[in-house]
Amino acid sequence: MKVRYLAVAREEIRDATDYYAAISPDLGTAFKRKLRQLMRLGLLK
After folding, report:
1. Model's pTM, two decimal places?
2. H-type helices in the chain, by residue range?
């Protein structure tokens, strides 16, 4: 299944990733990894 994000959702994801990456680059990466994992599991729509 292909997921399409609204522009506002993409912006929020980018902002959150940037926020966590500013704290720690590893934290930003972990956030995006966890988001993708939850999408694959169908826990986020």
Report:
1. 0.76
2. 7-23, 25-41
